[in-house]
Amino acid sequence: MISIVIPAYNESKTLENNVKEIVKYIQSFEHEVILIDDGSKDTTWDVIVKLAKENPAIKGIKFSRNFGKEAALLAGLAESKGDAVIPMDADLQDSPKDISQMMQKWQEGYKVVECVSKKRPKESFFHKLCAGGFYHTLKKLTKIDMANARDFRLMDRQVVDEILKLEDRNLFFKGMANYVGFKKTTILVDTDERKVDVSKFTLKTLTHLALNAITSFSTAPLKLPVTFGIISFLLAIIMLVLSLGGYSCAVTMNQVLWIGTIGMLMISFVLFSLGVMGFYIGKMYEQVKGRPRYIIEERV
Ligand code: UDP
Ligand code: MG
């Protein structure tokens, strides 16, 4: 059986048609569709109730308030019973016609089939710039390349179970899905534009998500003070050499240099100490997250 997981936030205008469209493409497989109402303020839940009444393969979950797409996805995974699970957007930006290709790859033995957009859907220059910068930073810090990858992906049951075991409180679905590993392949897909309505993400929620993703998957920022400490220490050395060499003939100028050197040295010590604390806090953070130390795929 396959499970399709669809988070929906204020999608009442299009949800019914879109879900019916998706169901058309999965008729040939044994399936279930899990719809998560992420605290919508419109009639999304009524639509879900109606759909669930009409079709026993459709299940609905309603959040008490808006917890965000990542939480909705996880709730869907937790609820799913399928041997393979595919999260999809409610706006049909992910095309259900790709599902058969994903299933084929799954039958070939891949446990994760990730969809990568041939090109990012039409977005403003500003959005492209921010997304580009974000994924670049994320790749540098976490060594995981997630640009253009979508939440739209097929995951084997084993992968889903491992994702559900992660005890992260700050959620970044793509990061978690990458973290657990397993044999993966990617397929190139067309990503449509949202036809009706606007994106449900605002600049604020996206910024929050980006900061969350970076801080959930990297402790590198905590260690930044060490770099700054080294820079100011080098500066202090240069200033020390200058003052020792009596670089400036003016006596007062030399005194200022001495005071500056001492100040700079102090600053470098403080930054260094902060960085050292960062290392320990980073370790505590990793420990608190309680992620598994390793994940076993199979045994013989
Ligand atoms: N979504 C959600 N909770 C939110 C925001 C979005 O469940 O707080 C859902 C939304 O209903 C849709 C999917 O996440 O199914 C992607 O949202 P959208 O299409 O607005 O985002 P974009 O395509 O711009 O990334
Ligand atoms: Mg969309």
Q: Can you characterise this structure?
A:
Helix 5 packs parallel to helix 8. With about 300 residues, the chain is an alpha/beta fold. Strand 1, helix 1 (about 15-25) and strand 2 form a beta-alpha-beta unit. The two termini are about 25 Å apart. The longest helix is centred in the C-terminal third of the chain and has 39 residues, at about 250-290. The model has no long low-confidence stretch (mean pLDDT about 85). The protein has a seven-stranded mixed β-sheet, sandwiched between helices. The protein has ten helices and seven strands. It has helices at about 15-25, 45-55, 70-80, 100-105, 125-140, 155-165, 175-180, 205-215, 225-245, 250-290; strands at about 1-10, 30-35, 60, 85, 110-115, 150-155, 185-190. The chain is elongated. The protein folds into two domains: about 1-220, Spore Coat Polysaccharide Biosynthesis Protein SpsA, Chain A, CATH 3.90.550; about 220-290. The protein binds uridine-5'-diphosphate (UDP) and magnesium ion (MG). Uridine-5'-diphosphate binds near residues 7, 11, 68 and 194. Uridine-5'-diphosphate binds near residues 8, 38, 69, 93 and 200.
